[in-house]
Specification:
homodimer; 247 residues; alpha/beta; Rossmann fold; two-stranded antiparallel ribbon; 28% helix; 30% strand
């Protein structure tokens, strides 16, 4: 049973206050990089996995996507998404990412932002997503960067000479991590970059691009509190495409 | 002018004492993983870049490679390689990796171990290597892992609770790093994983596999001093293949 912390009232309240929740896509600092990794939306059938408040679903339709199916495991998130959306070509529904029940070869693009690190079995998910993608379909996603999810005690430390460092350990020790983020006891699954890429490759995906996101100079100028993020990337963005000839 | 610290007598002496220098491929802990990323050697025309003492060149020939061209920028390394090799189908010659002067489409496999982090312009190198590879030719390499090369002060720290951590900073700040390794003042170039992958992709390579190497349980049992390497990977191994239809 996947964790559904998003329906916890306190967590939901905290999550709703995040800049990316209030402002949508432009409130997510990595969006301008992620956006460039997407194929042209015109005419696409899009699956928005872990759609949250539906910002990407609405954007995809504005860019000409033919239709969007948007899935989340939180009823509260979906209710808010429905409230924010007036477009009958976006269909919101409640489902676990691992158990979608969608038709084979019915999507040209699967998009999921900052959600796959909550998934325990990435291989099973890739196998399922491969089925519902068309040949040459795209799978574009962001996750918390493995350098960010790895540590047993994630956080910054100040060295004797004043250098601020990210206390990295356990990078190659994949598996469950419990952290406090908005609410205590949020469960994530740490995997290496190698595991993400090789799992995609083993399931017939081709890697198109990989970005280890950090703020650019302009963003740091506007948001000085982001400056430390260049010391270790908070997000990993991957663009992959299904090969045509896989079984 | 590339750095040629390998012809410094003291450096050469120290380098010659390394386990990987004395024992060849089996002395390199990452070899058993890297070996699995290689195509079958039979009949291949192989370029061994930064060949050092020639261990890979000899192995490739033993596995059936048709011929091997082995290049290094150190005359001392090449002399030792020639001494260790009795095989007229291995040709050793002195050249900089960036200036090889080899014929177009003349190699099926380019291999280079722990050398690309000494190269300043990875894009120019990929453009040159692409020219001398055959269509579908393989490019397989190991480098020091970007987590290992990034820090301004690379090293382990012990946290107040006793946890040993790798003091990571400057990961997204690519460029020159000066470290003391065998000799003082060794110059390396730090690049992110994203830059390695995207540079390959932009030059028409397909990614086949990526391994962030750390010791397995058996290796730690035999070499307890390697145990900490699971906290942060020391090596990154990448297998790529040239697309047929690139310009």
């Amino acid at each position: 049973m996947p964790q559904n912390i998003f329906d916890d009232p306190n967590f939901f309240q905290g999550y709703s206050q995040l800049r990316r929740s209030r402002q949508g896509l432009t409130g997510a600092p990595e969006w301008q990089v992620l956006q460039k990794m997407l194929p042209p939306m015109h005419g696409l059938r899009v699956l928005d996995l872990a759609c949250g408040f539906g910002a990407f679903s609405r954007w995809a339709r504005e860019q000409g996507a033919r239709r969007v199916v948007a899935v989340d495991l939180s009823e509260k998130m979906l209710n808010e998404a429905r409230t924010r959306t007036s477009d009958t070509s976006v269909a919101y529904y409640l489902a676990e990412m691992e158990n979608l029940g969608l038709a084979d070869a019915s999507f040209d693009l699967i998009y999921t932002a900052l959600a796959l690190h909550y998934i325990q079995d990435l291989g099973a998910l890739c196998a399922a997503l491969k089925q519902i993608l068309t040949p040459h379909g795209h799978f574009i996603f962001s996750i918390e960067h493995p350098i960010y999810t790895a540590p047993s005690h994630p956080g910054w430390q100040t060295m004797p000479d004043g250098t601020k460092i990210w206390a990295l350990d356990a990078y190659l020790l994949e598996g469950r991590r419990v952290t406090d983020w908005i609410a205590p006891g949020v469960v994530k699954y740490h995997r290496t970059i190698g595991t993400y890429l090789n799992t995609l490759l083993e399931h017939g995906f081709r890697i198109l691009r990989l970005e280890e996101w950090g703020p650019n100079a302009e963003q740091i100028e506007a948001n000085p509190e982001w400056a430390d993020e260049v010391q270790r990337p908070p997000f990993l963005l991957i663009a992959a495409q299904l090969e045509a000839a896989t079984g």
